[in-house]
Each structure stands twice: as structure tokens, then as C-alpha cells.
Amino acid sequence: MINKIIKIARGLTKKHPKGNMSFQIITRLAEECGELAKQVNHFENSGIKREKYGAPQKQKMAKEVQDVIRSALQIAQYYGIEKDLKKSINKSYKKLYGKSS
Question: What's the domain count of the chain?
Fold first, then answer.
């Protein structure tokens, strides 16, 4: 699953080469976090009126989660820290579960 999101992030970086400076990426990440927050509010029935937007949809929530992960991965790709990110993930996993994947 995560490998596909990594490929999507790389593909979007290539598709839109003029929009991939660090500030542009972090701005997109902030925007995507706001959209995810909107979905969470919708699911929790706070902040957004269900009468206006209807029942919450899992597909919309999933899309927003994907967009946040993709934008965060684009930051890692921009700074070339994918290997460091993998090490950090493995370290956290090992700390929690006592083994690496």
C-alpha cells in the first residue's frame, strides 16, 4: 500500500515540476491536513452541518488520509531522506514490537 503512495508522490512530482519547491509542498500538506480535519469533524458531527454535506463517506476520508501521506512523502523525497525515514520507521516498529520488518 505505502509503495503505491510513494509512486504516486513521485509521479505527481514529475507531472507538475513547477510546483515542487519545499514551501509549495508544505503548503499542500497544510491544506490536505485541513481537508482531513474537515472530514474528521464531519464524522464526529462537529463543525460541519450534516444537513449541508449529507452523511460522512469513508471514501472521502480515505482520500484525504492518502493526500496527507502523499504530501508528507513528497517532503521526504524533496530532501532525499527516504532511507532515513525507513530507518526511523523500522526503529519505531522495533521499539513497539521488538522486531524489524
Answer: 1
Domain containing 89 equals 2-97
The 10s digit of each residue's pLDDT in 35-60 is: 999 999 889 887 667 778 888 999 99
What is the three-state SS of the chain?
Answer: CHHHHHHHHHHHHHHCHHHCCHHHHHHHHHHHHHHHHHHHHHHCCCCCCHHHHCCCCHHHHHHHHHHHHHHHHHHHHHHCCHHHHHHHHHHHHHHHHCCCC
| CATH code assigned at 91 | 1.10.287
Distance CA 25, CA 59 (A): 24
